[in-house]
Design a protein that fits this description.
mainly alpha, 2 domains
Length: 353
């Protein structure tokens, strides 16, 4: 791909690639983890244990999958594609050297904000280097196009991680407020985080490792709120049915580019999160650090709420009825009546086709 590359087209390409890469790496575990867990309690425990490991390990490939998706959109060669994916894997920080144990350890995904920044740099660099090395491309492209972005990524990673910590500290202050206000503000926060490169799962672990079960429940409800609005909008614009289903099953980040292009989509998302957060407070919906960032994905949020004392009816009301009915009403109000955005803001492009 050698035509002129503007920042706008580069940013859109990278954001779309991130959406596809993140979803393709996470969706299997999001949908099947709870199913495999409970199925393994009934029969074939060893098989379902291995199956759970298989879908869980797919998450470790997310940075590489992001690079692959970006490279395909940019029409990169196979070498350029693999170099980009390798650079993003390093920059993600998902592989870390433990100096005490003298071994490398891994975590799923890594820091997606750093992946976004280095993807912008690496994609632009590889684009500019395309065809410059001739027959020596196989030698110099991995060194310059891969090594330099990877090195830059390792230097930026500690600073970028501070963004996540700063946001987590901000949300932590909400836990000192009275319960209703806390539930609404935490639901609002997580409804925003889920449509950005931030990991709601990581944020949930950071915030709720020391209990605060109502806060964790509200966080899960916030994730559901964003999914509800985006699913309602996706159905309204008649996206491929697979996209709409995928959103509620765990592919919420597939719509990151839509929210970035039309930030006013956050208005119905926030309104839905506020109402649903109040519902979480009123019905005392609880969770913990393992469920806070998932919402309805894999039924992790509802099952955790039931485990902590909610009835099936209350779980259905707070995780399905309130957020999805609110999403429908607020999208109708802000989209159709007040016309803050056009319905094509929900258009998914080629996803699912």
């Amino acid at each position: 791909m050698t035509e002129k590359l503007t920042f706008k087209s580069l940013f859109n390409t990278v954001l779309n690639g991130m959406a596809v890469g993140v979803v393709s790496g996470l969706i299997a575990n999001a949908v099947l983890s709870a199913v495999f867990k409970y199925a393994g309690m009934l029969f074939l425990p060893e098989f379902f244990k291995t199956a759970s490991q298989a879908v869980y390990l797919l998450q470790f490939a997310v940075p590489v999958l992001v690079g692959t998706a970006i490279g395909m959109t940019m029409k990169f060669t196979a070498l350029e594609n693999t170099v980009l994916g390798a650079a993003l894997l390093v920059a993600s920080g998902s592989i870390v050297y433990n100096s005490e144990l003298k071994v490398y350890t891994t975590v799923p995904m890594g820091d997606l904000i750093n992946v976004l920044l280095i993807a912008l740099f690496a994609t632009y660099l590889i684009h500019k280097l395309s065809g410059k090395f001739g027959s020596l491309t196989i030698i110099f492209l991995p060194i310059i196009g891969g090594g330099i972005p990877a090195l830059v990524g390792l230097y930026t990673l500690p600073h970028v991680k501070k963004i996540t910590k700063f946001l987590a500290d901000g949300v932590m202050t909400f836990t000192t407020l009275q319960p209703a206000t806390m539930a609404v503000l935490i639901a609002l926060s997580f409804s925003l985080f889920i449509v950005t490169p931030l990991s709601t799962v990581a944020m949930g672990i950071v915030l709720f490792s020391n209990a605060n079960y109502l806060g964790a429940g509200a966080a899960a409800i916030g994730v559901v709120s964003a999914a509800a609005v985006l699913m309602v909008g996706s159905i309204k614009i008649k996206n491929p049915s697979g996209v709409s289903v995928a959103i509620v099953l765990g592919a919420i980040k597939l719509m990151m580019p839509n929210v970035a292009r039309t930030p006013l989509l956050l208005v119905p998302i926030f309104a839905t999160a506020a109402v649903s957060g109040l519902g979480a407070w009123f019905f005392n919906i609880l969770g913990d650090q393992t469920s806070a960032g998932f919402g309805i994905i894999g039924l992790i949020g509802p099952l955790k709420a039931i485990e902590k004392g909610a009835s099936l009816l209350v779980a259905l009301l707070t995780y399905v009825v309130i957020p999805f009915s609110s999403a429908f009403l607020f999208d109708k109000l802000f989209g159709d009546v007040l016309k803050l955005y056009k319905k094509d803001a929900y258009e998914s492009g080629n996803y699912g086709k």
